[in-house]
Amino acid sequence: MSPFLYSDSESDRNSPPIRFNRTCLKNFFSVLLIFVYLLLMAVAVFLVYQTITDFREKLKHPVMSVSYKEVEVYEAPGIALYPGKAKLLSCEHHLYDHIPPLKNPGQPGENLCVTQTINYTDPFTNQIMKHALIVKGPREVWKRELVFLQFHLNETEQDFSAIDYLLFSSFPDFLASLNQTKFMQDCERSFSSWKFSGGFRTWVKMSLVKTTEEDGSQSVEFRQETSVVNFIDRRPAADHGDQLFFVVFEWKDPYIQEIQDIITANPWSMIALLCGVFLVLFKAADFAKLSVKWMIKIRKRHLKKRARELNHIS
Predict the structure, then answer these.
(1) Contact 114, 135 (CB under 8 A)
(2) Which pTM was predicted?
(3) Where are the beta strands (DSSP E) in the chain?
């Protein structure tokens, strides 16, 4: 036998295993790609579930946003005082935190404030009649405008003496209200009340907080800082049985705090993410489909070739 024929026979004997190994290797990688596709699909399904879960949680728990709005002039607030048996001696407006010395403490003085008295039924019991003195509050925050009030109470059998008050957002709204009784009852339901004691000067610094609810409605809340100093009573000893009340109302600063609940969940970003995930799944599925078709085609070709070789041998 010639070397040339021997070489061809050797090549024929060695070729099938090499081709078979290549086919097995291609099949192995095709199966591996299918497993990779399944893994990607599982990750994509998890991402979709996690995205929807996060979106629902953000809808349930909005984030609180706090901002500060600077104002030149405040709308005059309403100061509702409940003096009981105490009498108003004086009410004055002063600027730049300056209160002149008291000339005749305990004696009637000037009333330079806009005031109005009103009687209404307690909104919580509907039995007790309440007598309120409504005073127009300060406006000029940059000029440090303040309202200084002085009350006098004759001898009392009580161990402690105090005057209640509450703040509401707009004195002009009170004047313009057609039903001032209902207006004050609504204010008492909405706003908290505080006290200032006799024998002291109570300095109240107010700040305003506006809150926007999820339905778009707004609520107003007053916050305050108080400082108390003792009144040095230089009146005759016979007058010391009477109680004097001093209270000052002033704006703390020219900033209104605005609170709003913000939903950080963005439906468009979620839709974009879901579209991207589904696009990847579609491409991966298409690739896996082509891989399976290619495997079937290679398998059929291999079987045909093997059948042809067997026929040739036979």
Answers:
(1) yes
(2) 0.66
(3) 63-70, 78-82, 87-94, 115-121, 129-136, 146-153, 162-168, 193-197, 200-212, 218-230, 243-251, 255-262
